[in-house]
Each structure stands twice: as structure tokens, then as C-alpha cells.
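Note to self: user wants both folds in one dump. Writing first protein now.
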Amino acid sequence: MGGDQMGRARACGISFAESSFFPIPPDPLLIAMVMANPKKFLRHAAICTASSVAGGVAGYGIGLLLFGSVGAWVVETYHLQEAFALIGTRYEENAFLTVFTAAFTPIPYKLITIAAGVFHIHFAAFLIASIFGRGARFFLVAFLMHHLGKRYKDSIEKYIDVFSLLFVALLILGFLLIRYL
């Protein structure tokens, strides 16, 4: 397996695992892959997105079918009990926005995927929100790295979470304005 294939395999594995149980996000690996081969930034983002969404589906399955064993272990291991309890309330308010927000921001996506299964969130809504949220995140990172390159690498890595939260805040504000106007 060549270096580029090995990198894609690692990105696949990390993206999948991070969505259901692994604590390290795939963004740094995506950044490294785009830096190594900027012309393939769309491919790298697509691989991370597809793998992450597949991992999210696995997380959903863990919540739906295996929460008593695997899901509870993940929640306890990462000390996410309080956050898990809050997720049910957020799902009642707007499940799609909750999944999208977690998929795009540094909110632990694995918590959202497992909770989606536990709280029986409509699977199609979960899947669509995951695709859009994870896709927006990974394509944004890949796009920034491709267009801004090495010169801004450290700044992008340092502030990607802030940019993500700002984007979601603006998105929520937009939804609120539409709802109340």
C-alpha cells in the first residue's frame, strides 16, 4: 500500500472511530493529507466525510442496540454523563439542528450519535444532518488548507473550533430570525 493510500486508510479509520468511540478528531490528519497533496483536497474531504458518517451510523447502532454495554462505557469513559442527559432535551427541541451542530463543531459527535440511537431519533433526519454537518466541517478544513496552505496552517489548526462555533451560532441565529419574523 502506497503512502497516499495509507494516509487515506488512516483518515478513514480515524474518521469512522471518532464518530462512535475514539477521542481524537480526524481534522489534523485531514490537514496533513491536504498539505501533502493539495490537488486531492476534495477527495480527502469526501473520504473523511463518508467515513465519519459511517462511524456515526455505527454510533447510532450502539445507542439503539448496545447502549447497556458499549454505549454506557463510552459515555462513562469520556465523562459525558451530564452532557448525555442534556442531549435528550436538545433532541426534543430540534433533533436535526442538534445533530448538525455536533457534526460541524467540536461538540463530541460520538455522544450525539450514540444518544440519537438511545432517544430513537428519526434515522433519515440523523443521517442527513450528519452528512451536511460533517461534510461542511471537513470540506471547510480541506478548502482552507488547499487555498491558504502552509502559510496559515498553524492558525487554521488553532482556530478551526472557534470558526466552527461562530458559523453554527450564525446559523442558529438565522433559524431564529426566520422562525420569529
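First done. Writing the second protein, which came from a different request thread.
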Amino acid sequence: MAASSGSSQLDSLEGRVIALAGAGGNLGPTVVRRLASTGAQLALAGRTLEPLDKLAEQAGGKIDTQALDLLDTEAARGWADGVAERLGAVDGLVHMVGGWRGGSPIEKAPLEDWDYLEPLLIRTLVHATQSLAPHLLASGRGRVVVISAGQAQAPTHPNALYAAAKAAAETWTLALADRFRGTGCTANLVVVGSIVTPAMREESPDKDFSTFTPAEEIAEAVAYLSSDAAASMNGQRLTLRGAS
């Protein structure tokens, strides 16, 4: 699956427009740099503009940035239509909006955690995909890549609410894959464990991250699933769970 930035597998990303939701998070810099290296045109969205602009500058090239609350349906629709108008099309969406709450025994899990997780992990995905789906279908080669977690398939009781939210997001993604069937578009999941980023390694050089999923591997998977090399993959889970 993995391919270098010069590989013919990823040549098809040249000039494609890929929207990234949650680009300001920990995973954002690695994924943005990887996709920028393929020649894709990127549109970054996050809660605040400053980190997006900084990331765009670091990645080089012309990158569209917008501060956005994906819980606002009109804002999400405006973002989708605006990217299509400014960049000429939308050929892909990478959903990286994340967050975690948990740690309590299942009988004590506070439902306030669900009130936090459901909008963040499910509703942002629903709004982003509903807003961008018409543009992805118009592209005829639209790609949706959603970052998921192993908890969705193998939940542990202290993480029950987080696992339930991730499982719901997976179900929505697989239903979107069904909508895309026969259209040339695809929707797939990258299933990860705890993520280790280059910044985390730099901050804790002596820590053992062997059971973590490297951000670089996730970025490579995103690039692959966004390309023509993965045109036959739809409604699939690509699992990257570290060395555990």
C-alpha cells in the first residue's frame, strides 16, 4: 500500500482538490504535508484560522484555508460550495475531526461525555459529507477518507461512549460508500490506535511509541485511498494499529 511521493500510484492526485476537515489537529500537519507533496490542491478547515494559515505556509503551494464550525449545517454547506467555486471542483474529503472522553467503568460513564463526543465525532462527519457529496459525485472520482479507531470494532468498557460514537461514524461512512457504489466515488476508513506524531517524538525522545500508529503511516494511507490506485476500494477498513 505504501508509496513514495514520486510513485506513479499517486500521480493521479496532481491537481485534484481535497478538502480536509479537522486539519488543525495533531494529525493535520503530517497529512497536509503528504498530500501537498502529491500536487493535490488542498482546502483546510478547522475551528481557528491561525494554525491553518501557519500549516499552509509550512506545506508550501497555494492552500485554501477557512475557519469553520462543522456543527453549523449552513456553514458546512457554505464551505463545500465555496471550495468548489474557488478551486473549481472537490475531488476528495479527509475527515480528521477527533476527540476522546472516557476512562470510567461502564456503569459510571457520564452521559455528558456522549454530549461531547456525538457532535464532535458523528455530526461533523454527517455535515461534511452531506455538504460535499454533491460535489464529489459531480467529480466522478470523489474520495472520502475517515480516520476511525480500533475501539469501534473492539470496544473496551471504560471507553464505551467513545467506541459507540466511533462505531456510529463508521456506520455512516459505510452507508456513504453504498451511496457511492457504481459512481466512480469511494468512501473508506483508516482505523488507527493511539497516534504518534513527529512532534510527540521530538518532545519525548525516550518514550516507547512502538504500540502507537505513526502519523506518517496514516498520511500514506490517506494519500493512497485518495488516489486512483485505490479506485476499487469502497466501504473498506484499512487498519493501522501499531505493533501491538
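Dump finished. Worth passing along: Residues 213 and 242 are 5 Å apart (CA to CA).
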